[in-house]
Amino acid sequence: MAASPFSDLNPPPRLIMGPGPVDADPRVLRAMSMPLLGQFDPAFTAYMNEVMALYRGVYQTKNKWTFLIDGTARAGIEALLVSLIAPGDRVLVPVFGRFGHLLTEIARRCGAEVHTIEAPWGQVLDPNRVEDSVRTVKPRLIACVHGDTSTTMAQPLEEIVRIGHRHDALVYTDATATLGGMDVAVDRWGVDAISAGLQKCMSGPPGSAPISFNERVASHINQRKHVEQGIKAEGAVEGNGPVIQSNYFDLAMLMDYWGESRLNHHTEATSMLYAARECARIVLEEGLAARVARHETASRAIVAGLKAMNLEIFGDPAHKMPNVTGIVIPAKVDGERVRHDLLHDFGIEIGTSFGPLKGKIWRIGTMGYGCQKRSVLICLNALEAVLRQQGYAATPGAGVDTALSEYRKAGA
Ligand SMILES: Cc1ncc(COP(=O)(O)O)c(C=O)c1O
């Protein structure tokens, strides 16, 4: 037998404190190593049903249609948009960062007539502006990101949903960066369709996208139901709307796969389902309110610590996501050098951003399993050290001392 040209996998130890992915909870990694099961094994279909029930808890919804799309977070986005949008539909996207542009781009590929309304990066949209646009555009769908990691801002959604419904539009939101870290109350807010990923506040690896949608959305999608010829049962009822332009992301067929009829579609990604199941169990065991509070405490601590190092926090503080913090890179500091030194001297990863913010800000994620007091303190300490190496004047220990005091105040 020939020796493998490559050594055993042995990833270097890291503290991943970028905007996601972040460190996975070891319980999730353990769950992923469990033996595979056949997709129609009753033990496996029971796990599928458990996943649906668990994510109803995480999303705070009674939506029957709450399940997983196999793929990273954008697979969930694409599945909902391609199944909801028929070519020519009018879609309004409020854009306040990179991921609003992503929704725009996906909606365009679905053949929508897309209208956008933009806020400068670092701010969110004024609901009155959104309502004015809705009046003019008359969209069938409003697609809005909840928390945009590229800018660290979170758009308050309740008002957007109210506006949408006042004007008879459906509202979809991308909660990839907020689920498991901020309050995401699908039924209370009335959001019609929502998607997320695992690799941020859900403490899992990328590769599975939990989604949820209500009956109004389901009935729109079922009007476009066309089942693959090779699995179609005799007398199957189909819709008369235009065919959904993706097979993999066809939610009409996926409802048949996850629903009682268990009509085969793709082969469910077994190990990712185990991961998603464990992520949701961990979130619900901790409790949604406790989890949100943990992220908010970390945010207060890290912001206070950074300010004590004379660093400027990026963006509108009233709309800052608690699970990611943007820092303006000070003049005369080489931002990429700082990230390099953090990684190579301390094994800590932090992020920069995209587009207009590339090289202008760093982003530190305090998400899910990675949102721990010790991580915050270690990261501040390391950041201070690498900054001082570049001649940046920070009072030694001020960042960590201040962050620690915030944690003490919160009793954490
Ligand atoms: C708000 C938001 N939406 C979508 C995505 C895309 O996720 P993925 O890379 O898992 O497809 C991300 C990833 O950073 C995100 O932060």
Contiguous uncertain segments of 5+ residues: none
Structural class, judged by helices and strands?
Answer: alpha/beta
Ends distance: 55 Å
- What compounds are bound to the protein? pyridoxal-5'-phosphate
Percent helix range: 40-55%
Number of helices: 14
The major beta sheet can be summarized as: 7 strands, mixed
Q: CATH first level of the largest domain: which class?
A: Alpha Beta
- Would you tell me the overall average pLDDT? 97
Number of domains: 2
Overall spatial form: globular
Strand content: 5-15%
List keywords for this structure.
3-stranded antiparallel sheet, 7-stranded mixed sheet, 41% helix, Aspartate Aminotransferase, domain 2
Quick recap of the structure?
The protein is an alpha/beta fold. The protein has helices at residues 26-32, 42-59, 73-84, 98-109, 127-137, 158-166, 186-189, 215-222, 251-258, 270-286, 288-308, 335-346, 373-389, 398-409, and strands at 15-16, 65-70, 90-95, 113-118, 141-145, 147-148, 153-154, 170-174, 193-195, 208-213, 312-313, 324-328, 348-349, 361-365.
